[in-house]
Design a protein that fits this description.
This protein is an alpha+beta fold. It has 3 helices and 12 strands. It is globular and about 55 Å long.
Length: about 210
């Protein structure tokens, strides 16, 4: 499910996903449901959620995806309000949360990671009845080196344990450099439909950065 269409207008609405019977709600701090989720089951990660996504998966339960920002713990020179990123996928269980997988990246020196919220998505590209979570973020930094644009794919092919895969696009900032992509070994093992979905997200995010 693509969230970018929701951001300008109906961010607070619970939207029905296009894949079979999964129901996904996308919530921001201005939404009543956002506050209700935190009140009912808490915020298990450092910082404040930029976005909370709640997905009901038939026969598997309800998953909550937090994308948080916290004040940077390191000294940073690039930004006057540097942020660290913390994200996690949790399974709701009797009013509590069971951690499935987490992510973190820290600002440091002349480097500042930031979510590309418009390109953080949930989908079921291979139509197996279980979603993939696509976390997209960009590593801003000073200097002329290429900057990494990353799409991390969280999947659970066994429907029990999540795994992490990653595709990185290196954005050149010098004319003599060329754009290149790197795929980790887990990414290469993904079903083709999921790989194509991640590559499409990367391409769209790159276009927006340019």
């Amino acid at each position: 499910m693509t969230f970018r269409k929701l951001l300008p207008v109906l961010a607070c609405a619970v939207s029905l996903s296009s894949f079979a019977q999964m129901r996904t709600g996308v919530y921001f701090s201005s939404d009543k449901k956002y506050s209700e989720i935190i009140e009912d089951i808490g915020n298990p990660l450092p910082g404040k959620p930029v976005m909370i996504v709640q997905t009901f998966v038939p026969n598997h339960g309800s998953y909550v995806w937090y994308l948080n920002e916290s004040k940077a713990k390191n000294e940073v020179y690039l930004d006057n309000k540097p942020k660290d990123l913390h994200s996690g996928i949790f399974l709701e269980d009797h009013g509590g949360l069971i951690q499935q997988i987490t992510f973190k990246d820290f600002a440091k020196g002349l480097s500042q990671p930031r979510y590309l919220i418009n390109f953080c998505e949930i989908g079921d590209a291979n139509n197996d009845g279980f979603p993939e979570f696509y976390l997209t973020y960009f590593e801003e930094s000073d200097g002329l080196d290429a900057k990494p644009l990353k799409v991390i794919v969280y999947t659970s092919m066994s429907k029990k344990e999540f795994s992490k895969s990653k595709i990185t696009g290196w954005i050149p900032f010098q004319e003599e450099d060329q754009y290149r992509e790197e795929k980790d070994e887990n990414f290469k093992l993904l079903p083709n439909a999921i790989k194509m979905k991640a590559e499409k997200i990367l391409k769209a995010a790159k276009k927006e950065l340019n």
